[in-house]
């Protein structure tokens, strides 16, 4: 929701200056068992919203709980949505995005990203991380821009890759 | 959303990769139908990288079912009306 002075108002807080890029961006979270995901998701959402993008973060209940607890006033996260509800909405043509950043540290994450690649028109960035990131990257069989970092506890390598693709 | 949890199902393969699930269905069932990712069946939207196969055997359908934290399962479920919907896709 936009306030009169051009700020995005969240139900739990306020902030994020808006220049209004008109881009709708989906951040698709995977299983939250690898620590860097939550930290990078908050940072990524912050960067996208600061440039005026409209951000939706989709994930499992646990992934969203972790992110929301770290952002109690909603300064960084945009709208949030259950991951399967999000896939359903895109599949049924009820919503779509211009860009998608999908997190994957496992085969299941790749399967979700591959689904988005098929059902959405969004340009897809695939963030591959975790100890097996490089091997996992070799299994990707669909069009996407891969950002690969062997990051588990240290978010810096993924942050660097994100900074390179977000202007 | 995921009504599969409320159905009677048999797990044929558990916590495998999506590719293993795809190969299992393709190699173990005579009637195999390709569906697009996001295909709606039992009020669930199938997850996977194309080609995504669903098997049909007798009154049952065999589907890959992916959960973000647990990987992919291959499940056998009573097909009911879903079988005709699948066959109509061919």
TrEMBL record, chain A:
Gene3D superfamilies: MTH777-like. It comes from the Archaea. This is DUF1890 domain-containing protein. It comes from Candidatus Methanocrinis alkalitolerans. The lineage of its organism: Archaea, Methanobacteriati, Methanobacteriota, Stenosarchaea group, Methanomicrobia.
From TrEMBL, chain B:
InterPro entries: MTH0776-like. Pfam families: DUF1894. This is DUF1894 domain-containing protein. It comes from Candidatus Methanocrinis alkalitolerans.
């Amino acid at each position: 929701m936009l306030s009169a002075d051009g700020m995005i108002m969240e139900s739990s807080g306020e902030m994020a200056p808006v220049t209004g890029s008109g881009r709708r961006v989906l951040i698709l979270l995977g299983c939250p068992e690898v620590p860097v995901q939550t930290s990078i998701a908050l940072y990524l959402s912050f960067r996208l919203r600061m440039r005026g993008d409209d951000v939706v973060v989709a994930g499992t209940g646990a992934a969203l709980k972790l992110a929301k607890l770290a952002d109690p006033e909603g300064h960084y996260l945009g709208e949030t949505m259950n991951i399967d509800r999000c896939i359903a909405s895109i599949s049924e043509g009820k919503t779509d995005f211009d860009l998608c950043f999908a997190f994957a540290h496992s085969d299941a994450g790749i399967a979700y990203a591959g689904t988005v690649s098929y059902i959405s028109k969004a340009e897809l960035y695939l963030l591959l991380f975790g100890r097996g990131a490089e091997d996992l990257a070799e299994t990707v069989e669909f069009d996407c821009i891969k950002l690969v970092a062997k990051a588990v506890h240290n978010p810096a390598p993924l942050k660097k890759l994100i900074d390179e693709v977000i202007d | 959303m995921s009504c599969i949890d409320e159905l009677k199902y048999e797990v044929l393969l558990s916590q495998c990769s999506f590719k293993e699930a795809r190969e299992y269905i393709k190699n173990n069932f005579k009637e195999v139908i390709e569906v697009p990712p996001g295909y709606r069946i039992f009020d669930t939207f199938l997850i996977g990288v194309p080609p995504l196969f669903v098997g049909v055997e007798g009154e049952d359908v065999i589907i890959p079912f992916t959960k973000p934290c647990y990987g992919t399962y291959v499940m056998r479920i009573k097909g009911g009306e879903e079988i005709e919907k699948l066959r109509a896709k061919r």
